[in-house]
Specification:
With about 110 residues, the protein is an all-alpha fold. The protein has helices spanning about 1-40, 60-80, 85-110. The protein has one domain (about 1-110). The protein is elongated and about 55 Å long.
Length: about 110
């Protein structure tokens, strides 16, 4: 009976983890799209020094997507060894990118008025 309960908790967290990883990837891509738009129109500049050169190029969004998928795979792999740490880390990254996207949207809407 106890093994059934543990497996239910594992699969429930696994489902939550998949949702969080999907959210994280979507947020990173949204950040890339909004950043590219803001930089293109001169309302902002890229804050990541590694991506400043690439933001004007078409490959910028591909780099953002590949890095997001890679981060998702690392967090998913980490989940197999240490579910609690991986889950908490993913939640923190989702919160962080939610704030970044919210700030970028705020800049976008303020500059459009």
């Amino acid at each position: 009976m106890n093994n059934v309960k543990i497996s239910r908790i594992y699969f429930a967290l696994s489902y939550q983890m998949r949702i969080l990883l999907g959210m994280l990837i979507a947020l990173v891509v949204a950040d890339g799209l909004i950043s590219k738009l803001l930089v293109k129109h001169g309302f902002a500049r890229e804050g990541n020094p590694f991506l400043q050169y690439w933001i004007g190029e078409d490959v910028f969004l591909v780099i953002k997507l590949l890095c997001a998928v890679l981060a998702g795979l690392v967090l998913r792999n980490m989940y197999k060894r240490n579910p609690k740490l991986s889950f908490i880390s993913t939640v923190c990254f989702v919160i962080f990118y939610t704030l970044i996207v919210a700030w970028s949207l705020y800049i976008f809407f303020v500059t459009q008025m």
